[in-house]
User: What shape does this take?
Amino acid sequence: QVQLVESGGGLVNYGGSLRLSCAASGRLSEIVAMGWYRQVPGQERELVASIRETGDTHYSEAVKGRFIITRGNAWSTVDLQMNSLEPEDTAVYYCHADAWRSDYVAYWGQGTQVTVSS
Assistant: This one.
């Protein structure tokens, strides 16, 4: 099992910055990738950014150039630096981990609210 706990959400003005952190614990050696998703009520959860064990990163077109995903040693933490925030970034942000245990297993955090005021 892997446990994920997010922190760092809150209210920020248009153009401001926030940094989300995800603390991972448990069977960290099984993790092969981690990322951040977001969800707005009534819409599907969407991938925002991800990082693989190779260090390769992926960003959605909506956040490319504004958000940066980084990870700590041995998958202990994964952070999302969010800059130039827009009201459209308002959502609940979820930390996600993909682990390999003879098959892929997905883990989710409880989510943290990010609200960008205009």
Q: What stands out?
A: The mean pLDDT is 96. The two ends are 40 Å apart (CA to CA).
